[in-house]
Amino acid sequence: GSAEEQKLECEAGNPNAKDWHDEAMKIVEETMTEYWEQMKPSTTSKPPANSPNEHSKRPLESDFDRLRQEHLLQATVRTDNGGWKPELWRYLTDIPKDISKEMDIVAWWAAHSDDYPTLLRIAMDICAIPATSVPCEQLFSAGAEIATNRHSCLGANRFEQLQILKHAW
Fold first, then answer.
1. Which residues touch 29 (CB under 8 Å, ≥6 apart)?
2. Are residues 121 and 139 both part of a single domain?
3. What is the residue range of 159's domain?
4. Which of 16, 23, 44, 52 is deepest in the core (most CB within 10 A)?
């Protein structure tokens, strides 16, 4: 909902009505600020990436992660024209012509990585979350395969046993 919808809800007697658009924008702005601050180049001189001192700060970081971090830092420096706000404004106001329901969102972000580097980092973190990673969700979804009309005479106990076996298997 918008501010108008919030006002109508309040007038209808809902004291807990929210402007969800405003709430979402606050979260996006807080997240943009957080990601921008993480990637903001420091004003102090930085030792070369291959120096032992730099490697000892993050010993578990792979070469890929270090190179990715450097690339993201360079992208941030290239687009540092007033912080994250112009980037977010461009993203919200530009209407790309290459958008469709069937498009590959990861490919789109790869193609627009230089245009929206901060939003890209957020998208990479969000897109990396699997849709059904929790075992109980997978188990619940798998239950539909067992609970069919053909298996309706199994009974609750047998159904539970099959679910447990299927999960453990």
1. 88
2. no
3. 135-168
4. 23
Alpha carbons 62 and 125: distance in angstroms, whole number: 18
Tokens representing residue 86 in the block: 């112009």
Name the pTM for this structure. 0.51
Same domain, 37 and 105: yes
- Give CA–CA dist 23/163, Å, rounded: 40
Number of domains forming the structure of the chain = 2
pLDDT in tens, 46-87: 444 454 445 455 566 677 777 777 776 666 555 555 788 999
Q: Give residue 45's pLDDT.
A: 41
Same domain for 123 and 139, yes or no, is no
What's the rounded Cα separation, in Å, for the pair 129 and 76? 24
